[in-house]
Amino acid sequence: DIQMTQSPSSVSASVGDRVTITCRASQTISSWLAWYQQKPGKAPKLLIYAASNLQSGVPSRFSGSGSGTDFTLTISSLQPEDFATYYCQHTNTFPLTFGGGTRVDIK
Amino acid sequence: QVQLEQSGSELKRPGASVKVSCQASGYTFTNYAINWVRQAPGQGLEWMGRINTVTGEPTYAQGFTGQFVFSLDTSVSTAFLQITSLKTEDTAIFYCAREYYDSSGSYSDYWGQGTLVTVSS
């Protein structure tokens, strides 16, 4: 099975900060990677698919990059509504493993 | 608009069974697979598996075989997750999600609201 390792597990940031979250796959997955945002008590929401494609309706301050084994989610200017937990998930082969999550909270 | 409506919270005794439903609307149900995801209290997301809505073929992740069963009723655009022999450690929120697939990849683009299953004596 492919393991997904996210870092950091949590980050404290201020409104307006640039935030970068990393996800590493245990073997190459090409660009078969998605990023999700989850707020407390809510279902996850798709942000990025195929490593770098912005899902419709998602603000352009979110971006994704990477291929192979190393991927990044960047929030260019953190907004109050962005405080949440973020997960990566590979969709290369079954099982479609999630990373452990990164909680972004207020500094 | 695409919606996945899940059944309500359940409180079960250890050893009991539960069946969670996920009713789709706003799209052709058999055009997309359904994924199931578990989230234990305060924990991350775990992919449990998925079901092909055309063939009904399920795929289970390791750790979700035997006790967990995916099924369909395509006549009402509904997917089901049945969990048998419940244990207290099965307490979790269970999500269904539509699996979108094209040349750019596969991902869960619409999610149900989640169903909390609490197992307690």
Task: Summarize the SSE layout with pairings.
The complex is a heterodimer of chains A (107) and B (121).
Chain A: E1 4-7, E2 10-13, E3 19-25, E4 33-38, E5 45-49, E6 53-54, E7 62-67, E8 70-75, E9 85-90, E10 102-106
Parallel strand pairs in A: 2-10
Antiparallel strand pairs in A: 1-3, 3-8, 4-5, 4-9, 5-6, 7-8, 9-10
Chain B: E1 3-6, E2 10-12, E3 18-25, E4 33-39, E5 46-51, E6 58-60, E7 68-73, E8 78-83, E9 92-102, E10 105-111, E11 115-119
Parallel strand pairs in B: 2-11
Antiparallel strand pairs in B: 1-3, 3-8, 4-5, 4-9, 5-6, 7-8, 9-10, 9-11
Mean of the pLDDT scores of chain B? 96
What Rg of chain A is obtained from the alpha carbons, in whole angstroms?
Answer: 13 Å
Distance between the termini of chain A: 36 Å
Q: Outline the biggest β-sheet of chain B.
A: 7 strands, mixed
Widest sheet, order of strands of chain A: 2-10-9-4-5-6
The number of helical runs of chain B is 0
Q: Helix segment count of chain A?
A: 0
Helix/strand order of chain B: EEEEEEEEEEE
Structural class by helix and strand composition of chain A: mainly beta
* Residues in helix, % of chain A: under 10%
Main pleated sheet of chain A:
6 strands, mixed
Mean pLDDT of chain A: 96
The total count of strands of chain B amounts to 11
SSE sequence of chain A, one letter per element: EEEEEEEEEE
SS elements, strand count of chain A: 10
